[in-house]
Design brief:
By secondary structure, the protein is of the alpha/beta class. The protein has one domain: Alpha-Beta Complex (Spore Coat Polysaccharide Biosynthesis Protein SpsA, Chain A), CATH 3.90.550.10. The protein has ten helices and 13 strands. The protein has a nine-stranded mixed sheet, sandwiched between helices. A hairpin with a 4-residue loop joins strand 9 and strand 10. The longest helix is centred in the C-terminal third of the chain and has 14 residues. It is globular. It starts with a strand and ends with a helix. Keywords: Nucleotidyltransferase, Transferase. It catalyses: alpha-D-glucose 1-phosphate + UTP + H(+) = UDP-alpha-D-glucose + diphosphate. This is UTP--glucose-1-phosphate uridylyltransferase. May play a role in stationary phase survival. It comes from Candidatus Vesicomyosocius endoextente.
């Protein structure tokens, strides 16, 4: 059974400067809840209880958020505001949080490799908090992917169709449809951030993965790309050549909160859902 979820959260968030000069991007709120809390809640919805977070020295706010705030709790004890901390305190009490610091920013593959001591030799999920997803039927993206993993017992990537003028931002898959009902493909090729002209499909990988532990040894042997980064797409390509990667077109809606436009869209969407707008 998969119990661990890895959250790469060491990035600098330069697209949101100057806000990210002192505040981790993962702690940006959608209404009153940080992006990373949404991510942890999604992991919990898939029965993942061990949260492994890759951070850096400037992101202590993440550790503080998923810990007790005794002074604050004392200040609001007995008031109506005490209710506002019940949700996060329940998460802190139920889930286990472990942390490791990433010393260099060398791509998502390197970030995942950095998390190996927290994961060990077992399959695990990876969640990028930038990609905030909702599901109308209530089953989160990770919950859906765990079900796919149980069937195929190999690495799973979440995909969605994106406009061709946006395809250069993503890893793109080529695959054979193996289950029309569940929109699953056996991946035969993967390309990292192709130009629209060179993109073989518009099926883009988004920030959800289920990975088998052999991915760590593959990442160790994966050469950096032209920008000096180790890409998870390249490592997954090695697995796909053996038929061990499944792409799943998830059911739900995604907001790219790594961009200002996507962040604003997510805020407006959740505000409307809660009747604020």
């Amino acid at each position: 059974m998969i119990k661990k979820c890895l959250f790469p959260a060491a990035g600098l968030g330069t697209r949101f400067l100057p806000a990210t000069k002192a505040v981790p991007k993962e702690m940006f709120p959608i209404l009153t809840k940080p992006l990373l809390q949404y991510a942890v809640e999604e992991a919990l919805s898939a029965n993942l209880t061990n949260m492994a977070i890759v951070t850096n020295k400037n992101k202590r706010a993440i550790e503080d958020h998923f810990d007790q705030a005794l002074e604050l709790e004392l200040q609001i004890k007995g008031t109506q505001k005490e209710e506002l901390l019940k949700e996060i305190n329940a998460i802190c009490n139920y889930a286990t949080f472990t942390y490791i610091r990433q010393k260099q920013m060398l791509g998502l593959g390197y970030a995942i490799l950095t998390g190996k001591p927290l994961i060990g030799n077992e399959p695990f999920a990876v969640h990028l908090a930038d990609d905030l997803c909702t599901s109308e039927k209530g089953n989160s993206v990770l919950y859906q992917m765990i079900k796919i993993y149980k069937k195929y017992q190999c690495s799973i990537v979440a995909i969605e169709e994106v406009p061709m003028n946006q395809i250069h931002k993503y890893g793109v898959i080529v695959g054979d449809l193996i289950d029309n009902t569940n929109d699953t493909y056996r991946v035969t090729n993967m390309i990292e951030k192709p130009t629209p002209k060179n993109a073989p499909t518009n099926m883009a990988i988004i920030g959800r993965y289920i990975l088998t532990p052999d991915i760590f040894n593959i990442l160790k042997q994966t050469k950096p790309d032209k920008s000096g980064e180790i890409q998870i797409t390249d490592a997954l390509l090695t697995q796909s050549k053996q038929g061990y990667v499944i792409a799943y077109k998830f059911k739900g809606k995604r907001f790219d909160c790594g961009s200002i436009q996507g962040y604003v869209k997510a805020t407006n969407y959740f505000a409307k859902q809660q009747g604020i707008m």
